[in-house]
Structures are given as structure tokens and as C-alpha cells.
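RECORD TYPE: inverse folding
INPUT: C-alpha cells
STRUCTURE:
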């Protein structure tokens, strides 16, 4: 059974990040335990507790593919930036910024989607997929168009649905090759850890075999600024709410123009930078 490279953020917060990025390049996924410190983890858990409690399981889609993909016993909650100052803080974390800057270019990306994915008792395994296939024309070209972190807000265990991942599959040819279970492992990790993974790596939510345990992950990735993000943050975050957020978060949510290196500007309002609205 393959394994994901695993790093542990020491109490003095020392990790060789060059080693983390090298391992991510090689394996397509890496676990960093202790990525979120205990105080921030506690705030995230508190900020989201009521929203999770109030949310119904299952998909709001009417299409079978999405009903299956979202999971009948899974709760998915979006629009998080306006719900939690702790999440806004984590979005500004130095190494989380480095993940985006390194793979998508400094300031060259938006938040793709930030979802609480709460896998409930009895949930079946999710369809294995590559996130980059949201953008099929560019998904498997050179480099990355999307890069993601799943932050564990509860422990992720084999039993409660830890993410299933095929290490190395970001390099496999073909759009979505069949995956043999023997080529997969689960991202078992304590609360506060982050699974960082390539947009090309094949993965999916795991089966929850427990009778009463919820697996809560904060699944949040970045997407190149010239592509349409999965979540429409500018409709789910009011201007009023956006004005209260740190500038980096405003920018990640798309309240700014994207300016490709060679010229042009995207996402304008009145032919100018939407940041002016804030
Ligand atoms: O929740 C997980 O472990 C993975 C979920 C996922 O990959 C997705 O919904 O796109």
C-alpha cells in the first residue's frame, strides 16, 4: 500500500518547506500535521459549529451525477469567508499563501472554493476524480491550474472517511484512468493537519463506517486567475461583508481584477478594478 509523505509542524513551527514542496511535486499529495495551531483550530471549530448543526445532509442539485458526487450523507457548506474570522486568518497563513504562489504564480490565482465537507455515518466512497477536470481543456497540460488543501477540523481516520488518494497519480496519463485500490491510501491525520494536493492527483472522500462520527474537513483550493472559479464568491459574499475582510481575502474572493503578465485585465467593473467598489 503506498503512503503519502508526512511532515509534522513542531511546536517551534519548524518544517523544511522546501522538502514539503519537493514531496508534493513527487507524490501529488502531502500531509502536514499541525498546520493549524490549536488556538486557530478551536476558533474554526467554534465558528462553524452552528452552521454545521443547522445544515441538512445531501446535495441541492437535481442531477444524479452531482447528487452522487456530493453524497447523500455528507453536508457541504460554502460562503465561509463571511462566516468565520478564523478562516479569513487561515487564508492569510504564510505557507498556505506559499502553496498558491508557488504553483499558480504570485498573485496569479483566486480562491476556487472553500467548503466544509462533513462526511456523516453511513456515507459511501465518493467518485475518484481529479479536481483539474473542472477545466478539461487545460487540466492535464504543463504545471497546475488548481492546487488544494483539505484542513482536518476533526481527526481523519480510516473509519470516518479520510480522503482516499492515489499517490503519484498526478503523473498518470489519460483523462481519468481507473484506479486500483491497491494504489491508494487514506489521508489519516489528526485534527489541525492539512492534506495539500495537486489538481491532477486522483482522490475522493472516503467511506464513513462509523455509527455516529462526523469527519469534518475544510476543503479549500486555489485556481488560476484566468479560469472561472468553482464557487461564485462575489455573489455569496456581499460587498458589505467583503469590506470587513483582510485585503488578501478580498483579492482571493475576486474583488479585484486579474492582470495577466503579458497584458489585458479580467473581471472589471465599469472597465476598472472591482477593488474600487470596496
Ligand atoms: O472530502 C474529501 O475528502 C474530498 C472531497 C473532494 O475531493 C471533493 O468533493 O471534490
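DESIGNED SEQUENCE:
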Amino acid at each position: 500500500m503506498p503512503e503519502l509523505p508526512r511532515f509534522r509542524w513542531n511546536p517551534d513551527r519548524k518544517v523544511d518547506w522546501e522538502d514539503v514542496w519537493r514531496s508534493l511535486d513527487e507524490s501529488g499529495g502531502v500531509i502536514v500535521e499541525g498546520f493549524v495551531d490549536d488556538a486557530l483550530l478551536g476558533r474554526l471549530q467554534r465558528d462553524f459549529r452552528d452552521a454545521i448543526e443547522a445544515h441538512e445532509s445531501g446535495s441541492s442539485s437535481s442531477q444524479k451525477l452531482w447528487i452522487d458526487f456530493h453524497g447523500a450523507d455528507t453536508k457541504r457548506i460554502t460562503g465561509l469567508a463571511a462566516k468565520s474570522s478564523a478562516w479569513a486568518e487561515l487564508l492569510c497563513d504564510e505557507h498556505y499563501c506559499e502553496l498558491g504562489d508557488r504553483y499558480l504564480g504570485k498573485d496569479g490565482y483566486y480562491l476556487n472554493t472553500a467548503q466544509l465537507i462533513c462526511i456523516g455515518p453511513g456515507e459511501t466512497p465518493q467518485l475518484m476524480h481529479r479536481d483539474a477536470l473542472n477545466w478539461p481543456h487545460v487540466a492535464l497540460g504543463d504545471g497546475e491550474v488548481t492546487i488544494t488543501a483539505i484542513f482536518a477540523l476533526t481527526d481523519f481516520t480510516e473509519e470516518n472517511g479520510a480522503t482516499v488518494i492515489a499517490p503519484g497519480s498526478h503523473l498518470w496519463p489519460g483523462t481519468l484512468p481507473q484506479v486500483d485500490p491497491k494504489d491508494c491510501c487514506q489521508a489519516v491525520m489528526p485534527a489541525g493537519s492539512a492534506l495539500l494536493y495537486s489538481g491532477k492527483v486522483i482522490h475522493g472522500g472516503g467511506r464513513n463506517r462509523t455509527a455516529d462520527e462526523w469527519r469534518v474537513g475544510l476543503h479549500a483550493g486555489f485556481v488560476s486567475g484566468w479560469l472561472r472559479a468553482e464557487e461564485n464568491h462575489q455573489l455569496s459574499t456581499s460587498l458589505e461583508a467583503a469590506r470587513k475582510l483582510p485585503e488578501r481575502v478580498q483579492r482571493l474572493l475576486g474583488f479585484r481584477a486579474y492582470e495577466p503578465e503579458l497584458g489585458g485585465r479580467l473581471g472589471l467593473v465599469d472597465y476598472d478594478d472591482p477593488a474600487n467598489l470596496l
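NOTES: Residues 117, 126, 150, 163, 203-205, 217, 219 surround 2-oxoglutaric acid (CB under 6 Å).
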